[in-house]
Amino acid sequence: MMIKIESIQRTSPAKEECEDALTMNKGAGVYAVFDGATPLVPFRDSDDHNGAYLASNTFKRHFDQMEEGDSLKGVIKEANRDLRQQMISANIDLSKGYERWTTCVAAVKIEDSHFEYAHLGDCMIIFEDKDGEKVILTEDTVEGISERARKKRDDDRKRGVPVPEESYFKDRIEALKYNRTLANMEGGYTVADGMPAAIDALQAGNVSMEKVREILILSDGLFHPDWSLDRVFNEIQQSGLNDYVEQLTELLGEQNAHIDDRTAIRIQWGALDR
């Protein structure tokens, strides 16, 4: 039996609207965090939403509508297909990775005997087992992408593939555009972007509920500049999501560092035994 579900969503002070989204679909036992990637092109729909918002909220809509018998992979496939059709309708050039609307995904579906999980990108899923050990269940595939992109450019130049000189990519926007061409490619990173390769890149599996005491799902806006995810989880357990986010936001402000959208869900069992 679930003891407590806690969530938080805070918009970056640098943004007009939150590009993260979350689902807490208790009827289906589904909890998920989505982090839309801030666009590199100026598209806006008729409601003035950008591609990041549209991507994350497309997935939120599909997850909100999930029913008990639906699988995470099946719903991700449907949402990804829907996202593709929306981009086609908006005349987005899908051949250009930097124009596609994209979102990271971290989702769990809780059953009596186990929980199912699915993941793309750098939203993360961590659980604490019955012995108090933290298990980082997902891989942050975005981490290190700039270095991997630079290496790929170097390798391509050596093979005679026409690639601009490295000085060209000192422009942050051009570097980010190049990074996004590596979505769901070997050596790149994973993300939901409306393309079929996203489903092939999905990280998914099951964990026995016998092992689980607590689950934390978070967007990268809750990552701490100096702490491991284990320590972040420990701090959240000590102070709660709201206090942790407030402290992190204050620290990043003092460092003049980027403050991203911050979204997380914490699900606890057996909390009264602490």
SSE diagram, text form:
Layout lengths: L3 E7 L9 E6 L4 E7 L14 H14 L7 H18 L13 E8 L3 E7 L3 E6 L4 E3 L8 H14 L13 H9 L16 H4 L2 E6 L3 E7 L10 H11 L1 H14 L7 E7 L6
Antiparallel strand pairs: 1-10, 2-3, 3-4, 4-5, 5-8, 6-7, 6-9, 9-10
Helix pairs in contact: 1-2, 6-7
* Estimated structural class: alpha+beta
Note poorly predicted spans.
none
Distance between the termini: 16 Å
CATH topology label of the largest domain: Phosphatase 2c, domain 1
Number of strands: 10
Taking all Cα atoms into account, the compactness measure Rg is 19 Å
Oligomer: single chain
Q: Percentage of helical residues?
A: 25-40%
Placed side by side, the strands forming the largest sheet appear as 1-10-9-6-7
How much beta, percentage-wise? 15-25%
Order of H and E elements: EEEHHEEEEHHHEEHHE
- Describe the biggest sheet? 5 strands, antiparallel
Give the count of structural domains: 2
SS element count, helices = 7
CATH level-4 homologous superfamily of the largest domain: PPM-type phosphatase domain
* Broad shape: globular
What is the overall pLDDT average?
96
Q: In CATH, what is the class of the largest domain? A: Alpha Beta
Domain PPM-type phosphatase: 16-256
Protein name: Serine/threonine protein phosphatase
Pfam families: PP2C_2 (PF13672)
InterPro entries: PPM-type-like_dom_sf, PPM-type_phosphatase-like_dom
